[in-house]
Write a structure and sequence with these properties.
single chain, 290 residues, alpha/beta, 3-stranded mixed β-sheet, 14 strands
Length: 290
């Protein structure tokens, strides 16, 4: 299978590329830009041939269509996105531009190129938003009631993907991953943030104090390597237009995760809850049904 991953340089994109290569597929990827000092070695860092990593901004519709025609993929996994909930409150336009308009550009590029290509569109469980306790675990039939600009941009793109599948007969599968973590995750996310701080304490680079936000929300965490396997399973057997949760079905709090990391590290720390680390609006619990 010939595969194109939009956003291959991101956290999940790298793991997806590794998984697909391990199954013998021919993997191509796009990146928004390549820093001049890293450009010569970046493809090899991703285990890609130089001509398999293409520069394409998802906000550039015509360039995307050019890439799709050039690669002529059997499948396109769209992971390129604006991912920070906190940053979306500061710059909602950027969130909508990347997540909604970027998705529309991908749909248009595949449609306009005439390439027979299945799209696996990656959304977010954040699109469910204001979920009540009586709605847990969340199924794909739950209403979308997003609470942040990030979540709203993902919800809008989710609906757009459905519309394209019906009106334009585009072969697109909608994925709604819940929280996932694993090797290489940026430190802005809770598990990697806690792990980074714990290692800094253990090595003496940080005082024995961990800064946290709300430790008592309940979230559904999975390993990113399981998540990308689910994306491939959806590609292979999903129904066009349908949405699929990707989740463990188990609720965990950041407090539990922090306690495990403290135990594993063998160091004693004090925990400081900081107001700036807490979201202005949040849902007490978000657990998915797979």
């Amino acid at each position: 299978m010939r595969v194109l991953i939009a956003g291959i340089t991101g956290f999940a994109g790298r793991h997806l590329a590794d998984h697909l290569r391990g199954e013998g597929h021919d993997v191509f990827g796009t990146a928004r830009n390549l820093p001049p000092d890293k450009a010569p070695r970046f493809p090899s860092a991703l285990n890609l041939a130089a001509d398999h990593l293409l520069v394409a901004d998802i906000c550039d519709r015509s360039r995307l269509a050019e890439v799709v025609r050039q690669v002529h993929p059997d499948g396109l996994f769209h992971l390129a996105a604006f991912t920070s909930v906190a940053a979306s409150f500061k710059d909602p336009d950027a969130a909508y531009q990347a997540n909604l308009m970027g998705s529309l550009n991908v749909f248009w590029a595949v449609h306009a190129s005439g390439v027979n290509c299945r799209i696996v569109w990656i959304g977010s469980s954040d699109a469910y938003g204001q979920v009540g306790a009586d709605e847990l675990p969340v199924t794909e039939q739950c209403l979308l009631r997003p609470l942040s600009p990030y979540a709203a941009s993902k919800a809008a793109a989710d609906l757009a993907a459905y519309q394209w599948s019906r009106a334009q007969k585009l072969d697109v599968i909608r994925m709604r991953p819940f929280n996932h973590t694993g090797p290489g995750q940026p430190s802005q996310f809770v598990c990697s943030d806690f792990a980074r701080q714990m290692m800094a304490v253990k090595s003496g680079r940080q005082p024995a104090r961990i800064e946290v936000g709300n430790l008592d929300v309940v979230r559904d965490f999975s390993d990113v390597r399981d998540v990308v396997r689910a994306y491939v399973m959806a590609y292979e057997g999903g129904t066009p237009g349908e949405a699929y949760n990707v989740c463990s079905g188990i609720g965990r709090t950041p407090r539990e995760i922090l306690e495990q990391l403290i135990h594993l590290s063998g160091v004693e720390v004090t925990v400081s809850v900081l107001g700036e680390r807490q979201r202005s609006v949040d849902v007490p619990a978000l657990i998915g049904s797979a």
